[in-house]
Amino acid sequence: MSSKLISQVIFLILVLLCCTEYTNGKLIMQGSSGFVKGFRTLTSTKKHAYGQAFHDEILQFKNSNGTMTSFSVTFFFVIVPEHKHKGSHGMAFVISPTRGITNASADQYLGIFNEANNGNTSNHIFAVELDINKDDEFGDINDNHVGININGMRSIVSAPAGYYDQEGHFRNLSLISGNLLRLTILYSHKDTQINVTLSSPEEAYYPTKPLLSLSQDLSPYFLDKMYAGFSASTGSVGAMHYMWIWFINGYITIPDLDLGIPTFPPYPITKTKAALIVLVTALALALFAALVASALSFFFYKRHMKVMEVLEEWEIECGPHRFAYKELFKATNGFKQLLGKGGFGQVEEVRPDMATVVKILDGVSELPNNLLDIVRTEKLGRWYETYGNVLDVEVTMESGGDLTVTEPLTSVGR
Ligand SMILES: *[C@@H]1O[C@H](CO)[C@@H](O)[C@H](O)[C@H]1NC(C)=O
Ligand SMILES: *[C@@H]1O[C@H](CO)[C@@H](O)[C@H](O)[C@H]1NC(C)=O
Ligand SMILES: *[C@@H]1O[C@H](CO)[C@@H](O)[C@H](O)[C@H]1NC(C)=O
Ligand SMILES: *[C@@H]1O[C@H](CO)[C@@H](O)[C@H](O)[C@H]1NC(C)=O
Ligand SMILES: *[C@@H]1O[C@H](CO)[C@@H](O)[C@H](O)[C@H]1NC(C)=O
C-alpha cells in the first residue's frame, strides 16, 4: 500500500467524519451516486441517468404551531464535465417529502421531477438548481445558471452563475470548471426571503450581495417534516457531480471551510471511450501514413513526369524504350549535370564518330561510358533514326554502378 493511498484513505476518513459531525447523520445514496477515488459523486459515467444522496434523518421545518423555521444550507461541490466547455444537465439541492425521489426522470429533470408531475403543487419539493444545460421548455436563461425551483423545473428566479465582488460588480463563475464551488442558501422566516450565493472558496472574500434574492414565504410549500439531499442527472453528455461537504442548520449561519481543498478526480475514461481513443489514434495514424504515401507518390510522379518530358520523340516512336527511368536518372544524376551544363554541348564533344560506332556494333570496341548521355541527345536521336531501327539495346546499371551491356548488340543492319 503506497503512502499516497494511505494518505488518501486517511483524508477520506477525515472527510466522512467531518460530514457526519456537522449533519449528525449520513447521506443515503441512490441511483448513479457513488464514490470515485474516495469522493462522493451524484452521477457516474452512465448516460441518461440520475443519482441522489439524501440525508437519512427527516428534518423538522415547522414548529408544533405550524410556524416555518429559518434555515441555512451550505455545500461544496465540483462538476467535472465529460467534454470541456460542454455541460451535461447539472445538480440541485432538494428538500422533499421523501428520502430520495423515485420515478423521477434524468436528463433535463435532474432526477427531481418527471414529465407527469412537473409543476404539480402536490409535489412539495423545493430545489436550488445548478443547471449546466439550456432547456428552452423550462425557460432556461443559459447553460450555466443558478435557479430557485418550487414544485417544477421552471425556475421562479434564476441568474447566470457568478457572484458580486466588493465593488458590487458581477463576476462570472463556470459551474463546469472542475473547480470547487460553494453554494449557500439562506431562508429567513422573519423576512420570508430566500438568498442564494455562489462563491469560490479559493477566494477569501465571501460575497455580501447574494446572487439570487427571492421574497417568498415557503410555509405553504413545506410539510412539517421533510428530507434534504442532492440530485444530479446526465443526458447524452456525462458529467461527474462531486458533492463534497455540506451543512444544514435550522437558523442562519454561513460556515467556514477549515479544510484544504483537495484535487478532485478527472472525468473517468470509460472502457468504450478508451477503445474509441485507440481506434481513433489508429485511424489517424493510418490516415497520416496514407497521406505521406500519396504525397510521396505524387512527388515521384512529378519527378517521373519531369523525366518523361525530356524523353525524345524517337524514344516514344520506337515503342518501349529499354532504359528504365531509374537507371537513366541515376546515371545522369537526375539529369542535373546535363541540364546544368546547358545545350548538351558536352555530349556533342564526346560523340563517337562513325568508325567508333561501327566498331562498337561489331563488338570490337567498348561502349563509351557516357552512352546514356549520348542516348539522350537529339543528335543521337537522329543517329538512331539512321542506324538504329534494328538496333536493340538493353542497358542496365549493376549495383556497382558500372554501365554494362547485358544484351549484346545483336544484329546490325547495315
Ligand atoms: C410558534 O412557536 C414558536 C416557538 O416554537 C414561537 O416562537 C412562535 O411565536 C409561535 N407562533 C405562533 C403564531 O404561535
Ligand atoms: C412514473 O413517471 C411517469 C412519467 O415519467 C408516469 O407516467 C408514471 O405514472 C409514474 N409512475 C408512478 C408510479 O408514479
Ligand atoms: C398532481 O398530483 C396529484 C397526485 O399525484 C394528482 O392527483 C393530480 O391530478 C396532479 N395534478 C395535475 C394537474 O397533474
Ligand atoms: C460573463 O459571461 C457571459 C457569457 O457567458 C459574457 O457575455 C459576459 O461578458 C461575462 N462577463 C464577465 C464580467 O466576464
Ligand atoms: C438577503 O439579501 C438581501 C439583499 O439582497 C439582504 O438585504 C438580506 O439581509 C439578506 N438576507 C439574509 C438572511 O442574509
From TrEMBL:
Subcellular locations according to the entry: Cell membrane
PANTHER family attached to this UniProt entry: CONCANAVALIN A-LIKE LECTIN FAMILY PROTEIN, OS07G0133000 PROTEIN
Membrane spanning residue stretches: 274-301
Enzyme class per UniProt: transferase
EC number(s) on file: 2.7.11.1
InterPro entries in the record: ConA-like_dom_sf, Legume_lectin_dom, Leguminous_Lectin, Protein_kinase_ATP_BS
GO cellular component term, pick one: plasma membrane
Name under which the protein is recorded: non-specific serine/threonine protein kinase
Leader sequence residues: 1-25
